[in-house]
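A brief tutorial aside. Many learners find it easier to grasp structure tokens once they have seen a single protein encoded end to end. The record that follows does exactly this for PD-(D/E)XK nuclease superfamily protein. Read the sequence first, then the structure, and try to relate runs of similar tokens to stretches of the chain.
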Amino acid sequence: MSGVFWLLLGGVVYLWYRRRQSRLTVYRLEPYLKILEPIPLCGAPDVVWRRQGSSTLIVGDYKSRTNHRIYESDIIQLSVYRFLLLHTQEKAVADYGYIHFSDGSRRQVKLLREKQLGKLYERYRRILAGKIEPAKVCRTEYCRHCSHRAICNRKN
């Protein structure tokens, strides 16, 4: 009987320790970050976390939508923030981030690597230069908030 007690107690202590280690603490809120090299980018992540007991930074973004769906644009947005942190902070930055939803829940997402962001940036520059045609979205409501709507040749 005492062996079972110690096993259960050990399990409780382990779970408490893991939970304590997984807590996030705020490193910075909405920091405006800007770089010119290797890719000119700027942005302000909603939150930059630090895992308790670690100096590694983790990007986070808050979404007011009620569904918990993760979109490709969410991953790109967080990846840009990670890229900015990598080039402005002298700390390690996690290769994942968190999307926080209005109900208080969050989802961890794996972020793009620097090389993948570089390819997206080059594609963007080629589109703006008229060298390649942009891919069309399947739903026109995506165009509603696009900053390139005025120059896009898509018929709305």
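Self-check: The helical segments are 2-21, 72-88, 114-128. If you spotted this yourself, you are ready for the next section.
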